[in-house]
Amino acid sequence: MKHVLCAAILAFVGGQASALSCIRPDPIMTFKELAAAPENYFVLYGEMTFDEALLPPGVSALPTAAPDPIPAQFRGKGLTRRGFTSDYISPVTLEVSCLGSWCGSARSGGDAIYFVEAKDPPVTMLAEPCGGRIFVDPSQEVLDMLVSCMQGGPCSPQPLQ
Q1: Is the CB of residue 133 less than 8 Å from the CB of residue 126?
Q2: Please, which residues bridge with residue 11 across strands?
Q3: Coil, strand or helix: which one is 102?
Q4: Which residues contact 62 (CB under 8 A, 6 or more apart)?
Q5: Which of 14, 20, 66, 148 is 20 to 30 A off residue 57, Cα-Cα?
Q6: Is residue 115 within 8 Å of 73, Cβ to Cβ?
């Protein structure tokens, strides 16, 4: 009986440990994935500010429930075919999701790229455990490649030549 219980515990712990094997998110791959989705998305670049004390811990010893949506403010630009040229200043909602003991995270202040479903304001910024919709401190090469993707030009994680 002890062997069965021990095996069950190990299977559970092993399942939890392997449950969050994430592929490193990439903004260009995220752009391609969401461009193929049936929903419409905005690509925003700028600064989101909110009360970081409302975030759950990124990793905890026990499964964590996602917090209530967090009110935030965004100030930046939306991606158009001409680049990041469309002013976007609006209240937004930060929604953090958790998977077992792992929760997504975000940073108040500082520049980031946000992929958000195109809905009436306030749009929702998703912070998922494996990332993929928020990219902090993007390089100029990434920003340029996103513009190229939007224009129908080269669209790969490799920098433009």
Answers
A1: yes
A2: none
A3: strand
A4: 101
A5: 14
A6: no
For residues 153, 155, 156 and 159, what is the CA-based torsion angle, rounded to 10 degrees? 60
Angle (CA) 99-103-109 rounded to 5° is: 155
Residue type, 136: V
Say which DSSP state 150 is in: H
Q: Which bin fits 73, alpha (ψ -120 to 50), beta or left (φ > 0)?
A: beta
- Reading the chain (161 residues) residue by residue, the pLDDT tens digits are 434 333 333 333 344 444 556 887 899 999 999 999 999 999 999 999 999 999 987 777 777 778 899 999 999 999 999 999 999 999 999 999 988 888 888 999 999 999 999 998 899 999 998 887 999 999 999 999 999 999 999 999 865 55
Task: Write the CB contacts of 51 (distance below 8 Å, at least 6 apart in sequence).
Answer: 70, 108
CB 134 within 8 A of CB 127: yes
Q: What is the DSSP string of 7-30?
A: HHHHHHHHHHHHHT-PPPP-HHHH
Instruction: Give the pair of three-digit tokens for residue 111.
Output: 């520049």
Q: Which two tokens stand for residue 105?
A: 């995270």
Asked whether the whole model's pTM tops 0.70, one would answer yes
